[in-house]
Amino acid sequence: MSDLLEQIKSAGVVGAGGAGFPTHVKFARPCEYILVNGAECEPLLEVDQQLAALHAERLLAAMDALVDLAGARGAVFVLKKKYADAIRKIEATLPRYPRLCMHALSNTYPAGDEQVLVYETLKRIVPEGGIPLDVGVVVLNVETLLNIAEAMEDRPVVDKYLTVAGEVRSPATFRVPVGVSFGEVVAACGGATVEDRVFIEGGPMMGKLVFDQDEPVTKTTKGILVLPRDHPLVISRGRDMAEMMRLAKTACCHCMLCTDVCPRYLLGHKLRPDKMMRLAAFNSTCERDAAATEAFLCCECGLCETACIMGLQPWKLNKELKARMTAAGIKNPHHERPERANPFREYRLFPVWKLTRRLGLSKYADRRAPLSEYPLPTSRVVLKLKQHIGAPAAPVVSRGDPVERGGLVAAGEAPVSANVHSSISGVVTAVEQDRIIVEASGGRENE
Ligand code: SF4
Ligand code: SF4
Prior knowledge:
Blueprint: H1 3-10, H2 23-26, E1 33-37, H3 48-54, H4 56-70, E2 74-80, H5 84-93, E3 100-105, E4 108-109, H6 114-122, E5 137-141, H7 142-152, E6 159-166, E7 172-177, H8 182-187, E8 197-201, E9 208-210, E10 223-228, H9 232-238, H10 241-251, H11 257-261, H12 263-266, H13 273-282, H14 303-307, H15 314-327, E11 350-351, H16 352-358, H17 362-365, E12 371-372, E13 380-384, E14 394-395, E15 402-403, E16 408-411, E17 420-421, E18 426-431, E19 435-439
Helix pairs in contact: 1-7, 3-5, 4-7, 10-13, 13-15
The structure holds iron/sulfur cluster (2 copies).
């Protein structure tokens, strides 16, 4: 293992954009191009665009080092045209790095989907059921790249950047210690502005509902969206499959609007959410050319629901089918390599302003969430042993052990796993099956 790969592994770097794939595993094989994903296409999130503007020099230096590590021809920093500040800073720094360049996308969703990003930037189509490396590309998030820059200076991942938006007094983007509670982070924004509130962890399209304010921030928490419990987005997220399928039987008018906008269908993949709905609602006799296994090709971006005039949720059906087929040992049989994307693709791209309006989030969208670099003080952190894809990390500390901020508390020993470090100095007060709790010995850390 090269020195840099060892540093990345040792620092516990994982995909910070939400996926959590261990980064040292991603770079274990060579690639032709590296794409840095700064699309940040989910409404209300403002982390990566601000990091790109603030840390342009460090980010590009790390990118250049990764080009050597991966034996790549070059790397592309991908932003959206609307991120004027980030574009200006990156462009001003690029002349020092001849192997690097920048690409700017239009403001559509899901521009940050890995496969969409690869197509938009390099015009390469990832095969059905494949990953970007199948076409010679590795994609990583801006914050992941910043964590690599930190790892190059032997600093592990102990902080997380996230945006807090929605029903809070002052929306903000924070650097917080991994393991701090949602409640503490929301309190730092002046608190919630509604009594009966719930959280969405991540973006409004792909994030998950969280009800407990003690939920800890992990290395993949990109945002905390605070919404009233009766917000349409919360209600649709909470609707169970049985109810959704009951609605589908009576309400699906087979208009195909869901398929028309599906980003994977538009890349030429054989995923047709309208047919999946017919298949599930009326069984296979009326859809002989569709198979449940098409669900494996769904990235769960949720755009099919946004496009559906009946408010149906093909993505939820696909998610359920994937889980059931995987549990039954059924594997994805679809591996076609489309040569070209749908000819109407460019006319069907979904603007973020329209998405924001349909989600009922327009009233929050005009309030900016400026970045504060000073780490949020806290006296207690809950460090999950599985903050990444793969096997959980194994504890290397016991109850009562003193730990320093940055000290290793759990080791990612399996081939796909990641180290976990303490984000504050203090004492280990609990080692449980899925988490380690550290409490500061005297007062709040970082104060
Ligand atoms: S958009 Fe909705 S109503 Fe139209 S085919 Fe898809 S699921 Fe059915
Ligand atoms: S969530 Fe819907 S729009 Fe997105 S990839 Fe899956 S089927 Fe297509």
